[in-house]
Amino acid sequence: MAVAFRMLGTVDAAEDAVQEAFLRWYRMDAERRQRVRNPAGWLMTTLSRICLDILGSARVRRETYIGPWLPEPLPENSSVVGSTDPELSASIAESVSTAMLIVLERMTPAERVAFVLHDVFDFSFHEVAEMTGRSQVAARQLAATGRRRVEGYRRNEVSSQEHDRVVRAFRTAAEGGDVNELMTLLAPEAALLSDGGGVVRAALKPIHGARNVARFFLGVMRRRPDVKLTLSQSGNRTVILLVDGNGVGGVLNLGVEVGSVAHVWIQWNPNKLTTWQSADNEIKPRSV
C-alpha cells in the first residue's frame, strides 16, 4: 500500500492496484506459484507494472475530472505513512505531503515509478529495472529525471518550523476575517486550487493573485460559520482541517516559499478524506 499510494496519489487507487496484484498471484495455479523463487519480489514487480498502466490511463481520465485534481492528504498516523526505520521516517513522511505528491504528478509514469522505488524505498537500480521492464541504464535515467524535479521543488522549500509558523499565522488571519491581514501572508502571484471532484462544491478553476485568493477563502468561511479551523499533521507538515458537526470536511495545505504562501491546496472531495474520519487529528507539539 505504501508504495502504491506514492505512485498513484489516492488510497482507493492504491488499494485497487494492490488487490489486482494479489488477484494475479492467486489466479496462477499452484505449480506456477511454486516456481516463483521470490514471491514478494514477484508481487512488487507486478504492482509496479499495474501502477504504470494506471498512471498512463489516469492522465486521460483527469481530462474529464470536474475541477482541479489534487492528491489525497493523509493523517500523520495513517498506516500508509509509517516507517519502522527512524532514519527513513522523515523522507517517508515527506513523500506523502501534498506538495511532494503534486511534484510526483508532474513526472511521467515511468519517472514516478522509478523515483519512488529507488529514492523513496531504496530499491537498487537492478531491482527497479526488473520491476519496470527496463534496462538499468534507463531506470537510472528515469529516477535521475524525477530527482531533478524534486530538487527544483526543494530549492524553494522552507524549514518545517517556518512552514508551521506561516500556517498558524494563516489560520489566525482567516479566523479574524481581515482580507488585508491574510494578503500579507500570500505571495503576490499566489494560487489556490480546490478539489471537490464533482461531489461537493468547490472552485472549478484555479484562483490567482493574493487578493483574489484571500477574498475567496474568507468568502468560504463567511458562508460556513459552522466550520472551525483546526491544526493537524500531514506529510511531516502542519495542515489546517476544516471541521464541522459532521467531522473533517476539508484539508487545507499551504505551499510556503521564502516566508510567504505561494500555493493553497484545499481537498474537499469526501472520497479523499475518509482516512481523516477515524484518525486522532489533534495536533501534537513538535519536539525541538
Structure description:
The chain is 51% helix and 16% strand. It has 2 domains: 2-64 and 106-155, no CATH class; 160-277, Nuclear Transport Factor 2, Chain: A, CATH 3.10.450.50. By secondary structure, it is an alpha+beta fold. The chain has a 6-stranded mixed beta sheet, with helices on one face. The radius of gyration is 20 Å and the shape is elongated. It has helices at residues 2-8, 11-27, 30-35, 39-62, 89-94, 98-105, 109-120, 125-132, 136-155, 160-176, 179-183, 210-223, 274-277, and strands spanning 186-195, 207-208, 228-234, 237-244, 247-257, 260-267.
Question: How does the SSE layout of this entry go?
Answer:
Layout: H1 2-8, H2 11-27, H3 30-35, H4 39-62, H5 89-94, H6 98-105, H7 109-120, H8 125-132, H9 136-155, H10 160-176, H11 179-183, E1 186-195, E2 207-208, H12 210-223, E3 228-234, E4 237-244, E5 247-257, E6 260-267, H13 274-277
Parallel strand pairs: 1-6
Antiparallel strand pairs: 1-2, 3-4, 4-5, 5-6
